[in-house]
Specification:
5 helices, two-stranded antiparallel ribbon, alpha+beta, 148 residues, 3 domains, two-stranded parallel sheet
C-alpha cells in the first residue's frame, strides 16, 4: 500500500494518545510496519474529535456528528475537567494537506465510516454470520483467538 500512496504524494501515519514506547511495543507484537506516532501530551486527538475532556462531555460533545449521551455522574469520578476521559475515545481517520507552510484539515471519517479502511470487515460483512459479534467481542488481535 505504501508504494501506491507515496507515488501519489500521500503519506500515512497512525496516531494514538499512548506514549511512544507503548505504541512501538504494540506495533512489534502485531507485526506492523507502518509509521505510528504518539500525540501525547498534545490536544491532537481532541482537535480531530476522537478524544474528549470531561468539560466537553458535560457540555454536549459530539462524535460522528451526533451528540454523545453521557451520564453526568460518570464524569464526577475525579481528575480535572480538562483531563481526557479514557472511556470516551473512538476511532477516526483524518486527512491533511500542507500548502505554503500551512496545514489544512481536509477530511474526517468516524465510527462505521472508518470500517472501509479495515479490509477484514469488508469480507466479514459479506459472510453468512457477518462479524459474528454475538459474544460482544467484535474485535480480537491476531494472537487473541482461541487457536492462535
Amino acid at each position: 500500500m505504501r508504494i501506491h500512496l507515496e507515488n501519489h504524494d500521500v503519506a500515512f501515519t497512525a496516531v494514538s494518545r499512548a506514549p511512544n514506547a507503548q505504541l512501538q511495543a504494540y506495533k512489534q507484537r502485531m507485526g506492523w510496519t507502518f509509521p505510528w506516532a504518539s500525540s501525547s501530551p498534545s490536544d491532537f486527538n481532541v482537535d480531530v474529535g476522537v478524544s474528549f475532556t470531561a468539560d466537553q462531555l458535560a457540555s454536549g460533545a459530539t462524535y460522528d456528528f451526533r451528540a454523545i449521551d453521557v451520564d453526568p455522574e460518570a464524569l464526577s469520578g475525579g481528575g480535572a475537567a480538562t483531563d481526557l476521559v479514557d472511556d470516551w475515545e473512538s476511532p477516526g481517520m483524518s486527512a491533511f494537506v500542507q500548502e505554503g507552510g500551512e496545514v489544512f484539515h481536509t477530511y474526517s471519517a468516524y465510527s462505521r465510516g472508518v470500517d472501509a479502511l479495515w479490509g477484514m470487515y469488508q469480507w466479514l460483512d459479506r459472510a453468512p454470520k457477518g462479524r459474528n459479534d454475538g459474544d460482544g467481542m467484535w474485535f480480537r488481535r491476531h494472537d487473541q483467538y482461541p487457536n492462535a
